[in-house]
Amino acid sequence: MSLSDLAALGSFVSGVAVLASLFFLFFQMQQLGEQVSQNTRHAQALVWQEATARGVNLMIATADRELCAAYIRGNGEEATPDAIMQRQFVLQARAAALSIEDIFRQWHDGLMSDSRYDRARRSYPLTLASNPGLRRVIEEGILPGLRSDDPYRDFLESALRESRTLSMPAR
Predict the structure, then answer these.
(1) What is the pLDDT of residues 65-104, one digit of tens each?
(2) Which of 14, 27, 127, 129 could be bridged to 163 by S-S, CB 3.0 to 4.6 A?
(3) Does a structural domain hold residue 75?
C-alpha cells in the first residue's frame, strides 16, 4: 500500500467520521429541542399553579367573617349572618372549582399522567352530586364565563351531566 493509498483511506475514514458526527449532532439537537419544549411547558405549568394557588389563597383568606361582612356592606347590602355564610360558601366553592380546573389544565397540557387525571375525573361527578351548592356555583358562576370551545367547559358539562345520574344516600 502506497502513501497515496493510505492518504485516500485516511480521507475516506475522516469523511465517514464527519458524517457520523453530523448524525450524532442532529440527534443531540433534536433532543435538546424536545428538552427545551418540555422545560417551557413545565415553566408554564408552574406559572398556572402559582396563579391558581394565589386565587385559592385569596378566596380562602377573604372568606373570613369580617371580610365577608365588609364585602357585603361595601356592595350596599346588609351583612346578616346568613348573607355572610352564603358569601363564605361561594368563596369556598370557587376555590374548589379553581383547584379542579388546575388539575384539568395540567392534564390537558400533558403535564399530568392519565391515571392521576382519571382519578380526579371519575371522582368529580360524585363530588358534584353530593354538593348541590357547588353544582349551582359552577352552573351559574363558572360555566357562563367559559368559551364554548374551551375543553374545560366540556369537562365540567360532562361532570355535571354525570352527577345528575348519581343517587346519593340520605344524610
Answers:
(1) 999 999 999 999 999 999 999 999 999 999 988 889 999 9
(2) 129
(3) yes
